Amino acid sequence: MPLTVLSPVAGTVVAVTDVPDPVFAEQMVGPGVGVEPADGVVVAPVDGRVVSLHPHAFVVQAADGAVLVHLGIDTVQLGGAGFDVRTTVGDDVTAGQPLVAWDPPAVRAGGRATVCPVVVLEADPAALVVLAAPGSVVAPGDPLLRVG
Question: What does the UniProt keyword field contain (predicted)?
Fold first, then answer.
């Protein structure tokens, strides 16, 4: 069954190859896209269970795949400062449910990229269908990509 991934943030879609981190740009962990955020609200991209959680990144395990959302690049270096996590590991979440709040302008001011990679872990890149083309403006919950 195909997995449809919704945008976790409002913003502008960026090709994954343009994400300024080789782990994401080269799809080492899986295929996906990036979204340059317009604000700091981050929602669940799929229905599922939170299986990994850090202030700057989380993974939601859905019935048909696991989706990683990473908030910015090199934001692990912030040690959680500026992130308000509103879920815990093991929580069942619904697509569109707020999970994290953060301050992209403050992250940018600190010299870090704020693009948010949205990746289907260990999926076949050939099975990825991008539903929102690079340059498209999306709202949280808009269809972003599909796998399968």
Answer: Kinase, Phosphotransferase system, Sugar transport, Transferase, Transport
**Total number of domains in the chain:** 1
Q: How far apart are CA 25 and CA 87, in angstroms?
A: 28
91 by DSSP, 3-state: which?
coil
Are residues 147 and 63 in contact, defined by beta-carbon separation less than 8 angstroms? Answer: no
Q: Is 141 part of a structural domain of the chain? A: no
Alpha helices in the chain (DSSP H): 22-25, 104-109
The side-by-side arrangement of strands in the sheet containing 41-43 is: 41-43, 98-102, 83-85
The rounded average pLDDT for each run of 10 residues, N- to C-terminus, in the chain (148 residues) is: 95 97 96 97 98 97 97 94 96 98 95 97 94 97 95
First and final C-alpha spacing in the chain? 6
The CA angle 60-61-64, to the nearest 5 degrees, is 130
What pTM did the predictor assign?
0.97
Per-residue pLDDT, 148: 86
Q: Which residues are catalytic?
A: 70
Print the domain residue range for 53: 3-127
